[in-house]
Amino acid sequence: EKMSSEQLRFLLGDLLGDGSISQNGMYQCSHSHKQKAFIQYKLDLLNNIVSPSFHLKENLVKNHQIDKTYRTYHLRTLVNKELKSMHNGFYENNKKVFPLKFLQNSDFDALSLAAWYMGDGGKKGNVPSLYTYGFGFNGNLEILKFIFDRFQVKGEMKVDLKNIRGKDKVNFISFKKEEAKKFFSIVSPHMIPHFSYKLPTQS
Fold first, then answer.
1. Which of 103, 122, 157 has the alpha carbon at shortest distance from 35?
2. Of the N and C termini of the chain, which has fewer Cβ atoms inside 10 Å?
3. In Å, how far from its chain's centre is CA 51?
């Protein structure tokens, strides 16, 4: 099944956050029950590459370390050739990386950036951030370059000193003042209503 430009552009951003693609080309993601609207949006968007018999089901996932149970939803697609080639761009030795060259040659646009922010971003006050811890220090440098080259928005690399993910997983990216305004103006037309809390409050 051929994928649309909208589907591919959305996934270019989503894969930088919560989404993943298996080696054989199957997209999957999980979200908590609080984000059910987001996973339903993804299901509607990717409907033509999802099995007709697939239905969203609530799962209970237990975290034994803190003795807490979470309600989650899981989405997976059928295997797809275009997803397989996307996997080859986003993964090295089966580990997700920030694929600078792949994205420079892609159609990554405002929808892609919004997908990334919806899935793996947040704001404090009116300062938006992308939680890019998993890409390490060098990956974050590449992200800053890519976002500036693509959107002319200048981010700042920050360090989360409370981070417990590991020593090369402490960096994330924020956008301040005029850069924040530019960032919000790019992503806001593509955000689903559920994520209005990630957009600026009027002062």
1. 122
2. C
3. 23
